[in-house]
Amino acid sequence: LFNADHATTISFTLPQGREDEAVRWERMFDTAEDELDGTVLTPGDAYELRPCSVVLFRGVPQDDDAEAPPK
Asked: What pTM was estimated for this model as a whole?
């Protein structure tokens, strides 16, 4: 996700996974954060993109508990 605006925070709603797969969204990095805390979100959650930031999420299958920390 990319927010090029210099003043406005943009709310982004995380999408559902494919029809045949439940998914969680693990935040890999956010250029507006100095440190990451292992944030994992579910489809439908809103994420606030701060001004001039880039955020990368990866989809993690719901049943893959070893790959992602809990929310």
From this structure: 0.77
Q: How far is CA 41 from the centre of its chain?
A: 6
Residue type, 11: S
C-beta contacts of 1-5 below 8 A and 24+ residues apart: 1/47, 1/49, 1/54, 1/55, 1/56, 1/57, 2/49, 2/53, 2/54, 3/49, 3/50, 3/51, 3/52, 3/53, 3/54, 4/52, 5/51, 5/52
Q: First vs last Cα of the chain: how many Å apart?
A: 20
Q: What is the pLDDT of residues 14-57, one digit of tens each?
A: 998 777 777 899 999 999 998 888 889 999 999 999 999 999 99
